[in-house]
Amino acid sequence: MRVIAVGCAEAGVLAAFLLTGASEAVGTDIKQLRLESGQTVALTLQFSLRLVPQDILRQEIPSG
Amino acid sequence: MAIFGDVIEHLEDTELALSRIESLLQPGGFLLVVFPPYPSPCGGYQPISRSFWGKVPYLHSFPEKTFSWLLPSEASQENSEVFRLRTIRLSYQNFLRAVRQAGLGLKAEPHSLLWLALRYRLGLPFVPLVFLAPFVRLRAGLLLIFCAEVGYLLQKPFIPNSHRLYS
Questions:
Q1: For the domain bounded by B2-37+90-166, which CATH number is listed?
Q2: Theoretical Cys-Cys bridge with B154: which of A32, B10, B104, B163, CB 3.0 to 4.6 Å?
Q3: Which residues of A touch B1 (CB under 8 A)?
Q4: According to the model, what pLDDT value does residue B62 have?
Q5: What pLDDT is recorded for position B19?
Q6: What is the structure's pLDDT at A63?
Q7: Residue pairs spanning A and B at CB distance below 8 A
């Protein structure tokens, strides 16, 4: 299962999805700082997350 | 699968956000949306304000003048966000209308008595709103003002617009 979380902040919910067997996880948030801290945690815990800074109303969602 | 966790109530255009996500989903894909509706006890997000009045539930249902006197929007960044949400006012009706417009089908809608983020932080059990129903003899619409947070499980139909044929 592929999961996308909009406004994921530090991507804690995505980490839970990866633990329960999601094949791919993408997170977007308007706040770059929160994504950066999420990425740091993900690197430490070896989660393969893709976190993209994005405003859902003003930018297209990155595909792929 | 896509998730909006306590996000949709902050967006000015609910329908645009839902249709952008809908275009990303595969047919049969799920979308989980969790948010505190505006009429709920803390639906105005006033608890993020650091002042005393922010702790008062239903404060956001007060008239504009009283509300802005108690929580001045220029006092802090949190207060100005509370005021921005006052212009969005995402209620059940507005949300469900946007769901229909975006062409999504409704699969489940659990109502929670407690704010979910708070519930997980404190390790409290899930209290579905139906438990209150036998004790509080109110009409369903009125009962909803006690509901702190609501979750909607939506599904993109396998055949586009098929939900419109049957509903």
A1: 3.40.50.150
A2: B104
A3: 1-4, 17, 22
A4: 86
A5: 92
A6: 63
A7: 45
User: Do the beta carbons of residue B32 and residue B3 sit within 8 Å?
Assistant: yes
Maximal C-alpha separation, chain B: 51
Q: Which residue has better confidence, B126 or B81? A: B81
Measured between CA atoms, how close is A61 to chain B, in angstroms? 8
A13 touches chain B (CB under 8 A): yes
Q: Which two structure tokens, joined as six digits, stand for B91?
A: 């209620």
Domain extent listing, chain B: 2-37+90-166, 45-88
pLDDT in tens, B60-79: 888 888 888 888 888 888 88
> What is the distance between the alpha carbons of residues B9 and A12, in angstroms, rounded to a whole number?
20
Q: Indicate the residue of A7, A22, A56 with minimum beta-carbon distance to B5.
A: A7
- Among residues B116, B39, B104, B44, which one has the least CA distance to residue B78? B44
B50 confidence band (pLDDT: 50, 70, 90): confident
User: Is the Cβ–Cβ distance between A22 and A43 less than 8 Å?
Assistant: no
Q: Which residue from A5, A22, A57 is facing B13, i.e. has the nearest CB? A: A57
